[in-house]
Design a protein that fits this description.
14-stranded mixed sheet; 2 helices; globular
Length: 215
């Protein structure tokens, strides 16, 4: 009988992502808790094939509202816009849509496919849209997986208004990780999957914060 691989030796993409983020956090040193005003629209980490508006992203490529970001099979990107921080995994396509009141800020994220972890500053309301789910964000940490047929949404901490495109939203509050799975037939509760506190901590560190569960 074959012995299952230990997590440290596992080669599956999810465990590889978690080990990679842990290495980022440990290696970042002074990056972990940045000054609160270090909120430029910048790429913080870049791996593999990543395109912004159809052109290969470089470490100094700016990220702005209106951009479409796509990661390839080996692509990952962590970036900051304003007080919000994002980590996109491989095979993700995301459009950053401008705020209607200030086109220098992001008003909504349209996630066509793939997975992301995000941390949002308090104050302005932002919206996430997938083919099967909408969420109104208020100072929240989230994990999201999306495809044309199904979305998985974890409210890691904070609160959101969650619903389906064209339908009424409902308030959703989590103490620490609560999942929802949304298909064309509706939204159901779901367990926490495919992400960890380490990733939430890393993403918040990019904007000089700690997640709610560490405060």
């Amino acid at each position: 009988m074959n012995t299952p691989p230990k997590p440290d030796n596992c080669t599956c993409p999810i465990h590889q992502d978690r080990r990679r983020i842990l290495r980022y956090a440990l290696a970042a040193g002074g990056l972990l808790w940045l000054p609160a005003d270090a909120h430029a629209s910048t790429i913080k980490r870049l791996e593999g094939m990543v395109a912004i508006n159809g052109r290969k992203a470089l470490p100094d490529t700016p990220v702005r509202p209106g951009d479409v970001i796509e990661t390839g099979e080996d692509g990952r990107i962590a970036f900051v816009v304003g007080k919000d921080a994002y980590l996109l995994r491989s095979n993700t396509r995301l459009k950053l849509e401008a705020d209607t009141d200030n086109n220098a800020l992001i008003g909504s994220l349209r996630v066509f496919t793939g997975a992301l972890i995000a941390a949002f500053g308090r104050g302005r309301r932002r919206q996430i849209v997938t083919p099967t789910l909408t969420a109104g964000i208020r100072g929240t940490g989230i994990y999201l997986e999306a495809s044309a047929e199904e979305s998985y949404f974890c409210l890691c901490y904070g609160e959101v208004d969650i619903g389906q495109p064209g339908g009424p939203p409902s308030l959703f509050t989590a103490g620490h990780h609560a999942g929802k799975r949304s298909t064309l037939q509706g939204i159901q509760d779901a367990p926490m999957i495919n992400h960890s506190d380490v990733e939430n901590i890393f993403v918040e560190s990019l904007v000089g914060r700690k997640p709610d569960f560490l405060r």
